[in-house]
Structure formats: structure tokens, C-alpha cells
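Q: Make up one entry.
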Amino acid sequence: MMRVQAPFGDGARAIEQNELASQYLNSGDSVAIVLPAFAGAFVWKGCGSNDTEKSAAERAIQLVSSRFCGGSLLPEVMAEGEEAPEFWDSIGGQGEYSRVKELLGFPPGFEPRLFNVSNASGYMWM
């Protein structure tokens, strides 16, 4: 199981997780899963994942399958909320996972504000 992140749209990275478990899913990322003994593969696309993450997860499956099983492993691609029962079975059942894009750094409901800062008079005014 590899969690694929591309925080700013470029430079995607795949982070291998310790085990197959739903706790490693994140709505802001894509996940590439290769089943034991190369019995199959899944690409799970979180609703907040960007195109770079989605294509990098598919590429990760291709790389693993070409190295270990001759490139014949075709992943089943699914979006968040449209998972097949086989997907949940492969990761030990449906459980809780993060549904927030972690790298944004903003809490839910945060409203950005714009400030004008000037020290033209010798004092800091905002």
C-alpha cells in the first residue's frame, strides 16, 4: 500500500505504509495497493486528490508490476465513495480515515482575510 502525495501539484511522492489498513487512506491523496502474491491491484482516488497524485498512483502500480510480475498487473481504479467490496476486504474492512487534505494547514471553516501592512509612517499599521 502506497499513499501518493503531491502537495503543490508537482513532485508526487509515494509513501509505503506499514500495512494494508483503511487508517492510511486520506481523502486528499491517492493510494496504490498491490495485493499479496500480486493477486490484484487497486488505485483509490480520494475526492481531494489532484491529477498528479492520481497519475502517480497508477504509475506506481505499473512500476511494481513490471519489476516483480512482468508488468501484467492491471489495477482496478476507483474514486472515493465508489469502492468495490473487494477493495474494502483487501484492506481489512471499511474503517475511519482522514477526510481532510492534511498539507493545507487550515482548519475546516477557515475564512482567509487580506491585511494591508505598512510602516511608511515609521509605525507598523495594519
User: Anything to note?
Assistant: The chain has one domain: 2-100. The beta strands are 2-5, 13-16, 30-34, 41-45, 76-79. The helical segments are 51-68, 85-90. The chain is about 20% helix and 15% strand.
